[in-house]
């Protein structure tokens, strides 16, 4: 039986999130008093003090994190609009400040999917073959490699979504369960699976535990044949769940990688990507440097030396496009960190050819984090100022209900749930089941 296509069309971006929250907020007061703030809770309570306007019936830190994040987002949007309208906040607001962690987190997932879908039909082609056959690829198109409809995402996005489901179901990363999810996914006969992943999943099917399967593959295939980008491509949701704990984020990144890819360039490669994304979520302007500084001492020198050169000591002409994890990371980080727009980064990464879907997807996570999804200024009278072109978003074959105002906020909370002593809520379990259903698991 052919695999069930996990995604259906039907996103409608004329209806942006929060449409039920568009009653105007009071804008009097010295808004700079709201800044800086350490948490959404602090922002909302300070705003309440400043304006005397109650945003939450009972603002309690644990009671409704969703309410808090939505209301904080609303304050920031109002703040931004006021800043551009009549300067009432009394200082210039850098556009970057208005991009919230929520918006950046949504951007990570959307960027990953957009890069994957744009690159899918030209995967395996060289840049000159792409140029000769298609000119510059800027639109999703059908057929091509893997012979799928336009906008179809591949293993990169699907396995990242399984990771999202894993985090939501358990409130933390559960490696044993993720290994089972990989097996379930593989048994649904997906059209795009990497060779290293196949090998490790076969070990898992034979009863080898999650912590050993990737090592068995590394042993049997050898270091030259087991250091692909198959774990880096799917690992970004961990950065959304653990943005504030570099140690935990690294540990979980390595753990998620070694299920299939145990080569240290892969395990620590996932850590570098996720530390970079987390640094962007936290507003760093030098995110790769932050990541390399935080990287554990036993990370391979080859990885560190290669990525230390990005972007300044790397020439665009020298960028490689293979599925080797260091080639993929270098190229994706180069475009992701240097491009002036999300679209430019993804288009450049994809048209560089080779493992185009994965390099596009990884570059997409970085620009998604840098620029956010772009919905921060949306109100009834403002069209969404989307980071990703509408021609992509409208054709993306990824339809997860309410991911922008439900799943991603939950994911932002997921890594902190256990820490805060809150058991996995039924709300999260419910959404997780829905997500798993939509991503093709029976
Ligand atoms: Mg792929």
Automatic annotation (TrEMBL):
Q: How is the cofactor bound?
A: Binds 2 magnesium ions per subunit.
Keyword Magnesium tagged: yes
Annotated Mg(2+) binding sites: 154-156, 355, 357-358
| Keywords on record | Hydrolase, Magnesium, Metal-binding, Plasmid
What cofactor requirement does the entry state? Answer: Mg(2+)
List the residue ranges of the region (Disordered).
Answer: 1-20
The record's section on InterPro entries has: ADP-ribosylglycohydrolase, Ribosyl_crysJ1, Ribosyl_crysJ1_sf
Pfam families recorded: ADP_ribosyl_GH (PF03747)
Give the molecular function GO annotations.
hydrolase activity; metal ion binding
SUPFAM superfamilies recorded = ADP-ribosylglycohydrolase (SSF101478)
Q: Hey, what's the signal peptide range on this chain?
A: none
User: In the UniProt record, does the keyword Lyase occur?
Assistant: no
The family classification in the record reads: Belongs to the ADP-ribosylglycohydrolase family.
Q: What is the recorded name of this protein? A: ADP-ribosylglycohydrolase
Question: What is the species listed in this Swiss-Prot or TrEMBL entry?
Answer: Halogeometricum borinquense (strain ATCC 700274 / DSM 11551 / JCM 10706 / KCTC 4070 / PR3)
């Amino acid at each position: 039986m052919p695999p069930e296509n996990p995604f259906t069309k039907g996103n409608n971006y004329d209806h942006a999130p929060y449409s039920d929250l568009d009653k105007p907020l009071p804008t009097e007061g010295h808004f700079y008093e709201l800044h800086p703030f350490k948490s959404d809770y602090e922002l909302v309570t300070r705003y309440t003090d400043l304006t005397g306007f109650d945003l939450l019936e009972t603002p309690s830190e644990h009671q409704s994190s969703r309410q808090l994040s939505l209301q904080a987002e609303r304050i920031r949007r109002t703040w931004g609009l006021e800043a551009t309208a009549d300067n009432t906040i009394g200082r210039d607001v850098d556009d970057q400040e208005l991009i919230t962690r929520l918006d950046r987190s949504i951007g990570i997932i959307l960027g990953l999917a957009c890069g994957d879908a744009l690159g899918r039909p030209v995967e395996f082609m060289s840049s000159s073959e792409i140029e000769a056959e298609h000119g510059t690829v800027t639109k999703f198109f059908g057929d091509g490699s893997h012979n799928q409809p336009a906008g179809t995402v591949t293993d990169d996005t699907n396995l990242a979504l399984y990771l999202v489901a894993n985090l939501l179901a358990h409130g933390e990363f559960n490696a044993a369960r993720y290994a089972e999810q990989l097996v379930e996914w593989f048994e649904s006969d997906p059209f795009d699976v990497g060779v290293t992943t196949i090998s490790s999943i076969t070990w898992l099917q034979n009863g080898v535990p999650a912590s050993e399967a990737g090592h068995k593959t590394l042993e049997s295939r050898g270091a030259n044949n087991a250091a692909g980008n198959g774990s880096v491509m799917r690992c970004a949701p961990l950065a959304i769940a653990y943005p504030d704990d570099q140690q935990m984020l690294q540990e979980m990144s390595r753990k998620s990688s070694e299920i299939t890819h145990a080569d240290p360039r892969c395990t620590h490669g996932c850590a570098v990507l996720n530390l970079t994304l987390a640094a962007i979520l936290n507003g760093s302007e030098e995110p790769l440097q932050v990541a390399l500084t935080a990287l554990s001492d036993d990370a391979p020198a080859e990885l560190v030396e290669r990525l230390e050169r990005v972007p300044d000591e790397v020439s665009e002409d020298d960028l490689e496009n293979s599925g080797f994890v260091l080639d993929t990371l270098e190229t994706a980080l180069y475009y992701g960190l240097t491009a002036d727009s999300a679209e430019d980064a993804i288009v450049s990464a994809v048209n560089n050819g080779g493992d185009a879907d994965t390099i596009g997807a990884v570059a997409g996570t970085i620009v998604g984090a840098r620029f956010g999804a772009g919905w921060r200024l949306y109100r009834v009278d403002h069209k969404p100022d989307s980071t990703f072109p509408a021609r992509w978003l409208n054709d993306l074959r990824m339809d997860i209900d309410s991911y922008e105002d439900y799943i991603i906020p939950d994911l932002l909370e997921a890594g902190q749930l256990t820490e805060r002593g809150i058991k996995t809520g039924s709300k999260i379990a419910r959404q997780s089941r829905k997500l798993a259903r939509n991503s093709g698991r029976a």
